[in-house]
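Section 5.1 Outputs to date
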Amino acid sequence: TMYTIASNTKLFTAVAAGMLVEEGKLTWDRPIKESVPTIEFYNSYLNNTITLRDMLSHRTGITRHDSIWYKSDYSTKELFERLKYLEPKESPRQIFLYNNMMYAGAGYAIELQSGKPWAQFVRERILQPLKMNSTVFTIADILKQPDVGVPFTERRDSFELYKIPYYEDQQGVAPAGAIISNIEDMSHWLIALMN
């Protein structure tokens, strides 16, 4: 049964980034602007401070701004270019502020440093070596499958269940939550992580 793994996708993005750190194409703890000169944050202080580790651990001081990407057709590159408009709420590393946009930015940094779109990099460097052959990245792909899990949730203040609609394909923010998989493939992933 295929199901959306949603924000568990973020771990794939972090591992992909880690592969590029091992190759010397990114760094964890130097300002990301040193590795990716085209990244721009709200001001020069953030440009000279925010690291890849900050982006992936939700400690940039910048709030979610989900309305920028939700139901938009922005590409990862276009979301990356909008990071400069996101005014911080706090200084970096002072508070945990969940932020999907930083994963879009990290995904585009992966593309810039690897020369491959995020999904292609993840497929070639993670999914294929682990034989995660059923795992896909778009709702269009999942709808072609014969066995798809349908998510439900409870309405507030009642026991009534309703079907949660699939997010439309929002490839711009894919590095934050696009992966769709099944138990077999995810077991390969978990075994690799534990070993």
